[in-house]
């Protein structure tokens, strides 16, 4: 019986090691001519494409043509007859990346790509494997995949069934814990004892077991199971694993530096073969761009590749096609300070007569930072540069608000990438609904949004009753609520809850005309329980939401009244969001990975913000190195111009704080970096302030006293006695004090910075035990002029000026 002909790209016959008969036949077919798809590859890229036997690690730096290498390598495998399309396992991280890879391969080899069922994301391939072998883990092939909401709802039922308080032990928190465990490849029996005891009075492990049992009963799994179940199947069924070893002749993995432990375990099972069997695994990645540790990524996975696959060939792609020599030089010098890396240095063959150095700028505060960047963008726009070619990359999402407001004022189009605009965020919309209802009691949309936020036991039934009551009498819902509590139309519990809400709104409305609107806004969020709702939320997003709420309060300071602020926000929200507009992109550094722009602005390079204090506190040196990789990613997004900004003062967590320039600034090379000449209004980091940093070449510090920022500071000098939400407090914390003015120096908690310049030796020595009013007791571990690095007993490692501590 004749064998069915195979597509030309895969040739008849079984592909063999090195290509075998099929490969030689294809070469003869093409007359020995090199395929067109290899044209234009540089020597390193060609080596990565043509090295098809044995384990290969392609270290692909930013802008070095990683995607082209990966897709061309797959095309080359197919075109040389080394494997059929169904024998290639190609794994990516996102559906978008998988689609783009498939499209690029199709351009190179045509319809053969349609025969690649194993090209996709970790989860999509996991689903295929699990559908085929579901019975081996107690499921049927038609199992359901639960989304996040379903998982939280299921866990809440389990918590309540155990007689636990689901407010004290939130289901959302435990869902996050389970997700973290599964990312680490840990089942209920494997989790550390400390983790098991951390939830529900030591019942974490039991709840995890109960959760998995319930999933099995429901014939369901969550996203973590899409990897965990295949791992379990392969471990318990070695013959089945061997079958897949035979099926997958080539394995390719994109963005290997972003794999978590479970993904790593899954890949190792499929890629590591018995002695003598081919291990044709190729992982492509960049250890210098591993920036997702906070969601489980393990940079060690790529660092240990050669240990996992002895004899592996490492090919470095260092020729950059994106950025200028100065940008690459700055990025390379910065990332070289990391110890945990395999090592590579980006370079470019391009010569650009307009090549400018990376620019470092200083401003007084974040408002002037936004204004200065806005003016720089306008100047570029006047020079015929497109806004689409510019981006602002921030470390924390709360930084975006200042730029959004500024661009609305300037009439500059902008878009927020990777998330909603500031005023469109859930927590901001909730807070604004409270404020709108105070200013305009007839705003029924605002009423419906917040009446049960946070939860007050006023569900859909109560809201429908209020809606019907209001419509029947043609009155606003807030007025209807005030009337209905005098009747018996609601159940006693709902009536009591509604009564409390009405009393609060009456009190806030009485305060509207005579209380500073920022103070009233703080009071509303506190008394309504909205702030506490997020403080008690244990999800990864909660700290960012609290930061955004504090930034919202700060944004109100520029307006004379609540109504004026609400009008401003309406204008911001009405700003054009047409994706086809020429617009500046604003996004976090994490969202910027893989993107590129002619001009990149990197604001907020200050200690505590970048590197972020939370990363340092939670992960120590590993956290610092990931922050440095994030800085590297930011710089290498720029093709032609890169501007780095830092400020003297920034309001963080509701406090005006004097800030130190980021340590990353002094890790940049003099040869590729230039301190921008500051106009007088941007003064603030001269020698009267922090002295020793080489970036203190801006205007003398005394000149900053004529800046708009200083004048604003004088006008708001009461901020020196405000607590985390800006309300008056007796707590002494590190912040700007505006009690003195003039060229003598700024006051910080009553101390003149000018009295303690970094040009003078510190009065402290290494190992001194000191006390700080905000951070408590600690030991000095580093001294740089008047800057001290202190390991605090409770607050962890921080850098502070020596004027703020005293020996114990």
Automatic annotation (TrEMBL):
GO aspect biological process, one term: recombinational repair
GO molecular function terms listed in the Swiss-Prot or TrEMBL record: 3'-5' DNA helicase activity; ATP binding; ATP hydrolysis activity; DNA binding
Main enzyme class: isomerase
Annotated spans, Disordered: 706-727
UvrD-like helicase ATP-binding domain residues: 39-324
Annotated UvrD-like helicase C-terminal domain residues: 325-594
Known EC number: 5.6.2.4
Catalytic activity reported: Couples ATP hydrolysis with the unwinding of duplex DNA by translocating in the 3'-5' direction; ATP + H2O = ADP + phosphate + H(+)
Gene Ontology cellular component terms for the protein in this record: cytosol; DNA helicase complex
Keywords: ATP-binding, DNA-binding, Helicase, Hydrolase, Isomerase, Nucleotide-binding
Residues that coordinate or bind ATP: 60-67
Functional summary from the UniProt entry: Has both ATPase and helicase activities. Unwinds DNA duplexes with 3' to 5' polarity with respect to the bound strand and initiates unwinding most effectively when a single-stranded region is present. Involved in the post-incision events of nucleotide excision repair and methyl-directed mismatch repair.
Family the entry assigns: Belongs to the helicase family. UvrD subfamily.
Name this polypeptide is given: DNA 3'-5' helicase
Gene: uvrD2
